[in-house]
């Protein structure tokens, strides 16, 4: 062990058993420089630099230096992380120093510094109380007694001005979170450069979007050269041209309104790449509503752009209590040219408090964000979502594209009841020159509505009607409905729901496409998972009564390529039963919109009316996120942690991932067996969790615990379950066949 007594930030043994020491002064200056660089694009480099220089001020204190020199072995990697038994706290000192030097405005830096390991705190009842404790003052006094270098402690003429915060009071929370992102990413990267230089050298791909545009143009030329000159393909070419042309418009908010099957995915990427080239945008984010389709979209982009694409969704993350420095360093910081992610990951990160989730936010600055299937923005969180999108476009150089066949009504609206008001998006520019004309040209189906909106049809009657068609797709509202209808169908019928793992669904979807292409009779019973990103082309589609946007999406699976003059879409009223609240609201809004209406149910003008009805029936800030994130102008008090806990698009505590023993089409099961052996041996490495995502099904946590109690599941790591029982996964129905049904599991 070295006898060097200079203050250190980290220590790690090398291959020879000697210790490498990371000087604390070097770490603070390096983090300050990186954080300042990250914050420069949004004009906050001075704030970020101070946060970097002061974030580990408490490491100068003797108790920390004694502690970090005493630890050995693997835990040396995590020795500097406080908040665990035996650790020496060190993040309060810098927070108190910021307030001492800057007065009340120093609380901005206090949020960042005191939170850089544990995540952003609430002020009241959290950070305020912590900064008032005697231990914190002792930590600062002991740190200053070690005489940190003057260039670490001084403010170098820093003149804070809160009046210049982007968005004012409404934008304070996002601005602080952006600064926090700059600090923690800089801290992680400098720590990584010391701990694992090889990994640091491998990190990051040069962001050259102009080169990617060349690749894209080449790929599109090859694709269009091989395409049949059908009317649909000619319209797709026109849509692509409109996207390239509109990319010259100044950055801001855009909508891309294209009927399902019009080629939105590649057209929106064309817009994003050309817009990025013209206006110097640094990266492109493609935000997708469901994990079930993220991989296929990412694969499409990887086939064109290769390793420039990363895909990121929440199932690859660890729980907060299970995080270590190693797992945090493994978490993506979105430092890549093209990121494909989920709506959950994207929006929850924008409201997050956790260090690992906030880390990537600064890389959103000066980007192009395509929000696919924008009609699926959750109404219960719509107001805070629209608020943060406006801030990103107005103050952080982000251009946003709302891409959908059924544009939601997101403009501001005022009502007698102010609780129903919507502070919406203004100045949204449509990319397609004449969407109405496009919809008329791409009309490929006739929609038949039920004669009586309130008279349900039995599953037996519906099954008989379906069997009259050689090839037909029936889409229902819940997993239970899919299973009940499927059991009444002939043996060659196929079933799709989220109770099938991703690998299984992919195989079935490939089989469906092959059968349709060959002209083989094909009947499919599915939940709504086929309504986004699954390119099926049936001559007839039956859709259970649902939201008008879902009906339109279902219609997009009918006569998709326009080979027939018109496809047939039949809307039916399913048997009464429990439905999720949002499905019921969508049904009510559909009936209210279409009742007595003589126009085509898919007439584009009807969707504004539908979404206004839907949103008026919902509380658009159900969790009061706006109130929690509105800053108190005097104390700068804000509730970061509480807001993050409430802003959960999926209630993780109610959901549990189960890795199923899907054997694959050959029945051998070699892939999943190898992956599970690796998981048990090496733990949840990020690459491994991504592969296991293909074999994962989510069910309510209480059901997972019940199944574990009866020996059907094993909790292989905290929060992750693995199938043990051989009978738990059915080759046609997926997880939980007969005998283990649960109403809660089958609801959605």
Describe the structure.
The chain is α/β, with parallel strands linked by helices and about 750 residues long. The chain has 4 domains: about 190 residues, Hypothetical protein af1432 (Orthogonal Bundle); about 230 residues, Rossmann fold (3-Layer(aba) Sandwich), CATH 3.40.50.300; about 160 residues, P-loop containing nucleotide triphosphate hydrolases (Rossmann fold, 3-Layer(aba) Sandwich); about 100 residues, no CATH class. The protein has 31 helices and 21 strands. The chain has a 7-stranded parallel beta sheet with strand order 5-6-4-7-8-3-9, sandwiched between helices. A 6-stranded parallel beta sheet has the order 10-15-14-11-13-12, sandwiched between helices. Strand 20 and strand 21 form a beta hairpin. The longest helix is centred in the first third of the chain and has 28 residues. It is globular. About 5% of the residues have low confidence.
In short:
By secondary structure, the protein is an alpha/beta fold. Helix content is 44%, strand content 13%.
Indicate the structural class.
alpha/beta
Number of domains: 4
Helix content: 40-55%
The level-1 CATH class of the largest domain: Alpha Beta
Strand content: 5-15%
Primary descriptors:
748 residues; Hypothetical protein af1432; Rossmann fold; 4 domains; 7-stranded parallel beta sheet; globular
Strands, helices and their partners?
Elements lengths: L7 E6 L5 E5 H16 L5 H10 L7 H9 L20 H12 L4 H8 L8 H9 L2 H11 L5 H4 L14 H28 L1 H6 L6 H18 L4 H16 L6 E5 L6 H16 L3 E6 L2 H15 L3 E4 L12 H6 L7 E5 H8 L4 H4 L8 E6 L9 H14 L3 E6 L24 E2 L4 H7 L3 E4 L10 H8 L5 E4 L3 H8 L7 E3 L5 H17 L4 E4 L13 E5 L3 H8 L11 E6 L8 H14 L10 H12 L8 H4 L11 H7 L8 E5 L10 H13 L3 H8 L2 E5 H9 L3 E5 L2 E4 L5 E2 L3 E2 L7 H4 L2
Parallel strand pairs: 3-8, 3-9, 4-6, 4-7, 5-6, 7-8, 10-15, 11-13, 11-14, 12-13, 14-15, 16-19
Antiparallel strand pairs: 1-2, 16-17, 18-19, 20-21
């Amino acid at each position: 062990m070295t006898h060097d007594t200079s203050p250190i930030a980290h220590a790690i043994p090398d291959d020879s058993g000697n210790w490498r020491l990371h000087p604390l002064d070097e770490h603070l200056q390096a983090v300050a420089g990186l954080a300042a660089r990250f914050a420069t694009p949004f004009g906050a480099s001075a704030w970020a630099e101070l946060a970097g220089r002061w974030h580990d001020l408490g490491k100068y204190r003797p108790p920390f230096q004694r502690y970090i020199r005493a630890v050995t072995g693997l835990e040396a990697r995590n020795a500097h992380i406080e908040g665990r038994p035996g650790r020496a706290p060190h993040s309060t000192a810098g927070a108190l120093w910021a307030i001492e030097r800057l007065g009340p405005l120093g609380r901005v830096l206090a949020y960042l510094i005191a939170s850089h390991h544990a995540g952003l705190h609430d002020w009241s009842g959290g950070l305020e109380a912590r900064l008032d404790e005697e231990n914190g003052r002792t930590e600062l006094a002991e740190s200053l007694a070690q005489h940190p270098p003057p260039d670490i402690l001084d403010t170098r003429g820093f003149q804070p001005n809160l009046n210049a915060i982007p968005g004012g009071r409404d934008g304070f929370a996002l601005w602080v979170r952006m600064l926090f992102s700059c600090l923690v990413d800089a801290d992680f990267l400098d720590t990584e450069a010391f701990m694992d230089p090889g990994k640091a050298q491998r990190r990051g791909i040069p962001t050259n979007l102009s080169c990617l545009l060349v690749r894209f143009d080449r790929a599109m030329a090859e694709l269009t050269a091989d395409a049949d000159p059908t009317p649909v393909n000619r319209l797709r070419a026109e849509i692509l041209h409109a996207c390239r042309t509109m990319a010259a418009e100044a950055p801001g908010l855009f909508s891309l309104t294209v009927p399902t099957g019009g080629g939105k995915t590649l057209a929106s990427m064309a817009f994003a790449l050309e817009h990025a080239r013209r206006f110097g945008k640094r990266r492109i984010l493609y935000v997708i509503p469901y994990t079930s389709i993220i991989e296929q979209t990412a694969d499409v982009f990887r086939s064109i752009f290769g390793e420039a694409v990363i895909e990121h969704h929440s199932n690859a993350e660890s729980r907060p209590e299970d995080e270590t420095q190693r797992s945090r360093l493994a978490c993506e910081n979105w430092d890549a040219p093209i990121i494909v992610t989920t709506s959950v990951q994207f929006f929850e990160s924008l409201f997050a408090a956790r260090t690992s989730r906030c880390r990537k936010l600064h890389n959103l600055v000066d980007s192009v964000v395509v929000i696919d299937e924008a009609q699926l923005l959750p109404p219960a969180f719509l107001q805070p979502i629209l608020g943060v999108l406006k801030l990103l476009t107005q103050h952080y150089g982000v251009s946003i594209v709302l891409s959908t066949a059924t544009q939601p009504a997101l403009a501001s609206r005022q009502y007698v009841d102010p609780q129903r008001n919507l502070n919406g998006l203004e100045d949204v520019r449509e990319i397609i020159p004449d969407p109405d004309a496009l919809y008329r040209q791409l009309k490929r189906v006739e929609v038949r509505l039920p004669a009586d909106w309130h008279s349900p049809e039995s599953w037996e009657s519906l099954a008989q009607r379906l069997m009259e068609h050689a090839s037909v797709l029936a889409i229902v509202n819940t997993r239970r409905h899919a299973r009940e209808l499927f059991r009444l169908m002939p043996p060659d019928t196929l079933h799709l729901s989220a109770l099938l793992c991703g690998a299984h669904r992919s195989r079935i979807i490939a089989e469906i496409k092959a059968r349709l292409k060959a002209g083989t009779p094909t009947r499919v019973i599915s939940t709504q998972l086929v309504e986004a990103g699954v390119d099926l082309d049936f001559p007839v589609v039956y859709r259970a009564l649902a939201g008008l946007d879902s009906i339109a999406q279902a219609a997009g699976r009918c006569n998709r390529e326009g080979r027939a003059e018109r496809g047939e879409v039949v809307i039916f009223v399913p048997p009464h039963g429990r439905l999720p609240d949002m499905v019921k609201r969508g049904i009510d809004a559909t009936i209210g919109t279409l009742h007595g209406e003589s126009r085509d149910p898919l007439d584009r003008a009807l969707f504004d009316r539908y979404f206004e009805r839907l949103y008026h029936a919902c509380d658009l800030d159900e969790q009061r996120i706006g109130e929690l994130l509105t800053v108190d102008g005097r104390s700068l008090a804000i509730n970061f942690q509480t807001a993050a806990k409430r802003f959960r698009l999926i209630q993780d505590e109610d959901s549990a991932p189960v890795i199923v023993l899907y054997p694959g089409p050959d029945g051998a099961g070699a892939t999943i067996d190898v992956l599970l052996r690796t998981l048990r041996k090496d733990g949840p490495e990020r690459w491994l969790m991504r592969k296991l995502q293909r074999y994962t099904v989510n069910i309510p946590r209480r059901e997972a615990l019940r199944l574990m109690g009866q020996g059907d599941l094993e909790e292989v790591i905290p929060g992750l379950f693995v199938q043990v029982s051989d009978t738990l996964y059915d080759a046609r129905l997926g997880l939980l066949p007969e005998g283990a049904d649960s109403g809660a599991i089958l609801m959605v």
